[in-house]
Design brief:
Helices cover about 30% and strands about 30% of the residues. The protein is of the alpha+beta class. The chain is globular, with a radius of gyration of 17 Å.
Length: about 220
């Protein structure tokens, strides 16, 4: 999927499919630099990753349940990254969304709140009531975390974003301390609905709510 929606600044929408986390990280960095150089456009990226544990700037070895070499033995990649937060997991079947956009309002809390409420709106489309917790990044459903969130800013250009559990197994979360909370329970939309979720449909819902939240408008074609 690749399309353009627009407001005063156009928004590119790209679907990278299943991509290694490190490669996606480098591609994001290239888009951020292009945006800083005035050569790129705001870009919303949909992607899935092979099984990966990401470690944010504040993460330490205490966020891992096993020695680092054990993860490789189980086919789980470890990736240290420049977003905020601690440890989280990526698995095929997640809806991962990275906005490489210039914040029109120079307020990270405003951006994060609106971005996470896009997820809440998407869940509502499926009859699931998601909510935010004050001071904690992510989205929860009845006390179970369904969406992880971490953002990085460089001169008000964002990267990283959300990982919403749709159809993924959740097994990798048992190998870490999710976001520094050993008692954190996690869930997925398919688990809440007791059925698989069409990821193409979910992406369409997300894009619709994102455009509403940040005032992008689709071209009439």
């Amino acid at each position: 999927m690749s399309l353009t929606v627009e407001n005063t600044t156009s928004l590119e929408v790209e679907d990278w499919g299943l991509v290694d986390y490190g490669l996606a990280f480098d591609r994001q960095a290239e888009l951020v630099q292009a945006r800083l150089d005035g050569e790129g456009r705001d870009t919303l990226i949909f992607v899935e990753h092979p099984t990966t544990v990401t470690l944010g700037r504040r993460a330490t070895r205490t966020d891992l349940h096993f020695p680092e070499e054990a993860y490789a033995a189980h086919g789980v990649a470890l990736q240290k990254i420049n977003r905020g937060g601690l440890a989280t997991a990526h698995e095929p079947g997640q809806l991962v969304v990275y906005p490489v956009v210039e914040l029109k309002k120079k307020d990270l809390r405003w951006f994060a709140d609106r971005f996470l409420h896009v997820v809440v709106s998407l869940l509502a489309d499926y009859g699931v009531a998601g909510y935010l917790k004050d001071g904690e990044p992510g989205v929860w459903v009845e006390g179970r975390k369904i969406c992880s969130f971490g953002i990085a800013l460089k001169k008000w250009i964002s990267s990283h974003g959300i990982a919403l559990n749709l159809n993924n197994s959740l097994e990798t979360f048992a190998m870490i301390v999710p976001c520094g909370r050993p008692d954190e329970m996690v869930t997925s939309l398919s688990r809440e609905l007791q059925r698989p979720v069409n990821i193409v449909e979910a992406k369409s819902h997300f894009l619709e709510h994102f455009c509403i939240a940040f005032d992008y408008h689709k071209k009439n074609t």
